[in-house]
């Protein structure tokens, strides 16, 4: 088996810096052992894709990064998820509220809050006690621009977020995640509820965003992983079977299971 941390990678002749690293992670839903000995680097300002058949543990792994499993009793983590290097901190030992302030999440179905477009984006700053209108205006505009939504909504910021189209709502959720300047944004199949045109706009956005923020994305769509990610982990039955640069996973996988999956022989 190819262990992610064994592999030294240097794409495009640029040095790679780890933003986060999962080490020997196990996760249990009450009695169910859902993640088994996961090791995974997450490189800064890159897109890392998690792929694999339904039920293999992609979403479970993603949700460990923002401690979402803490919301339900009986769930248990073992191992470490390190974030940053100054000094690195184990996310699994931190206050979950503090973790969620540094790690944003975008879900399958767009989930704007029942608030105006402006207040959806300003929400994370208000939670931190920032209510200065000039600061909020600046961050709201910058975040909406970065989410490629500003031009479409700049004249209707007081309208409800739910009045937007599905693709616009997803970009609003991305703007909301960007507003707090997170180190990492988690995307859980962000285009699965969108039409093909909205999907392309979200994919283009993710490609642009990686220059500013690190991205970890779960996708069922292998073509999407190829289009937008630099690194890919293939998961099966709660384990990472293989991790490598995306092109290697899809063109010269080492493990037979990976080869079978990426060539569509199962899944
Ligand atoms: N709340 C839960 N309680 C118990 N078991 C769960 C829970 N959520 C998920 N599981 C189980 O954990 C395993 C991993 O599920 P997970 O949703 O992470 O897979 P996935 O790869 O994201 O699947 P999909 O692609 O279908 O979304 C599955 O066996 C699933 O049945």
From TrEMBL:
Q: Which organism is it from?
A: Thermosynechococcus sichuanensis E542
Q: Name one GO cellular component term.
A: membrane
Per its record, what are the GO molecular function terms?
ATP binding; ATP hydrolysis activity; phosphate transmembrane transporter activity
Name the record gives this protein: Phosphate ABC transporter ATP-binding protein
What Gene3D superfamilies does the annotation carry?
P-loop containing nucleotide triphosphate hydrolases
PROSITE patterns recorded for this chain? Answer: ABC_TRANSPORTER_1, ABC_TRANSPORTER_2
Spell out the InterPro entries in the cross-references: AAA+_ATPase, ABC_transporter-like_ATP-bd, ABC_transporter-like_CS, P-loop_NTPase, PstB-like
- Per the UniProt entry, what is one GO biological process? phosphate ion transmembrane transport
Q: Name one Pfam family in it.
A: ABC_tran
- The answer to whether the entry has keyword Transferase is no
Q: Which domain of life is it from?
A: Bacteria
Q: Which residues form the ABC transporter domain?
A: 20-262
Keyword list, A-Z: ATP-binding, Nucleotide-binding, Transport
């Amino acid at each position: 088996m190819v262990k992610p941390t064994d592999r030294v990678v240097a794409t495009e002749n640029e040095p790679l810096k780890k933003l986060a690293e999962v080490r020997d992670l196990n996760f249990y839903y009450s009695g169910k052992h859902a993640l088994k000995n996961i090791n995974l680097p997450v490189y800064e300002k890159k897109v890392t894709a998690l792929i694999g058949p339904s039920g293999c543990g992609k979403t479970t792994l993603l949700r460990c990064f923002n401690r979402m499993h803490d919301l339900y009793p009986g769930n248990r983590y073992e191992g470490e998820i390190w974030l940053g290097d100054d000094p690195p901190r184990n996310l699994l030992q931190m206050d979950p509220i503090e973790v969620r302030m540094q790690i944003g999440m975008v879900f399958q179905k767009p989930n704007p809050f029942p608030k105006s477009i402006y207040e959806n984006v300003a929400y994370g700053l208000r939670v931190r006690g920032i209510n200065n209108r000039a600061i909020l205006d600046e961050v709201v505009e910058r975040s909406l621009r970065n989410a490629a939504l500003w031009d479409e909504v700049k004249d209707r910021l007081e309208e409800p977020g739910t009045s937007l189209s599905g693709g616009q709502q997803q970009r609003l959720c991305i703007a909301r995640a960007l507003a707090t300047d997170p180190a990492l944004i988690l995307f859980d199949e962000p285009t699965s509820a969108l039409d093909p045109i909205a999907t392309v706009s979200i994919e283009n956005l993710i490609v642009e965003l990686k220059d500013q923020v690190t991205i970890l994305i779960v996708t069922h769509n292998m073509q999407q992983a190829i289009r937008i990610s630099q690194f890919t982990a293939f998961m099966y039955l709660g384990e990472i079977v293989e991790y490598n640069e995306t092109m290697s996973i899809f063109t010269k996988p080492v493990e037979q299971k990976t080869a079978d999956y990426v060539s569509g022989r199962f899944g």
